[in-house]
Write a structure and sequence with these properties.
Rossmann fold, 5-stranded parallel sheet, Thymidylate_kin-like_dom, two-stranded antiparallel sheet, binds 3'-deoxythymidine-5'-monophosphate, Thymidylate kinase, alpha/beta
Length: about 240
């Protein structure tokens, strides 16, 4: 039995992720490939509305609670994802579980101390949520066949006009998130040294600091291989 591929686009804020995701969808449609665009968080569901008000800082939630809501927001779409792929619809997904881990694991508590011998202060940051705790709720979700990670340096993000108003859109947070994404990417490559696992799972870093068309051409070159090939492997499960 053949099925369609599941493609996830991850990236830092200001990487052009949303624009690139729509360009990719338009390209797939021009090629006559049946495609569904998904986005997480999906702010339209009841859970998604709770996430939306948290991100806009109109509500406060415990860090554990919001993390689990982000994951639940994916689980509520898990069976739809599987059905669509098995029916032959390619899924392009703007953010997924990797964002879930990268952002939550990047929240820190900062304590400042002033050593008695010095007049300056030292800042120590401690993660609020352990990395593995952040991964656990997403274990078993449908696994993407390809993750394109749109990478941009903090300097380039600054040149693009800096970050927005939502929670997490702060330079220090974004720098930690970038490291967490790198860790997830390295992990995927280590578990499959060529970057391609038996199931076809791949994590590719795309330099998103370039011109829009250059970035979209590179993304298409990776996606084309997958959508024009034949996928017979069953849908994988994340981190299983
Ligand atoms: P957008 O700007 O792409 O709407 O994302 N986030 C996202 C998390 O903290 N956990 C998650 O599981 C997901 C999917 C990233 C809104 C913000 O939500 C963060 C930025």
């Amino acid at each position: 039995m053949t099925r369609a591929p599941f493609i996830v686009i991850e990236g830092l804020d200001r990487s052009g992720k949303t624009t690139q995701t729509s360009l990719l969808q338009a390209r797939l449609e021009r090629e006559g490939i049946s495609t569904k665009l998904m986005k997480f968080p999906d702010r339209t569901t009841t859970i998604g509305q709770m996430i939306d008000s948290y991100l806009k800082s109109t509500s406060e939630l415990d860090d554990h609670v919001i993390h689990l809501l982000f994951s639940a927001n994916r689980w509520e779409m898990a069976s739809t994802i599987e059905t669509l792929l098995n029916e032959g619809t390619t899924i392009i997904c703007d953010r997924y579980a990797f964002s879930g881990i990268a952002f939550s694991a990047s929240k820190v508590t900062t304590t400042t101390t002033t050593p008695s011998s010095s007049s300056s202060t030292d800042a120590t940051t401690v993660p609020k949520l352990p990395f593995e705790w952040c991964r656990a709720p997403d274990v078993g979700l449908p696994a993407p066949d390809l993750v394109l990670f749109l990478d941009i340096s903090p300097e380039q993000a600054r040149l693009r006009g800096g970050y927005g108003e939502e929670r997490y859109e702060k330079e220090e947070m974004q720098a930690r998130v970038r490291q967490a994404f790198k860790r997830l990417g390295d992990e995927t490559r280590t578990s499959s040294p060529t970057g391609v696992a038996a199931s076809g799972k791949q994590w590719l870093v795309v330099d998103a600091g370039r011109e829009r068309d250059e970035v979209s051409a590179e993304m298409w070159s990776h996606v084309e291989l997958l959508v024009k090939g034949t996928l017979t492997s069953p849908i994988g499960k994340l981190w299983n």
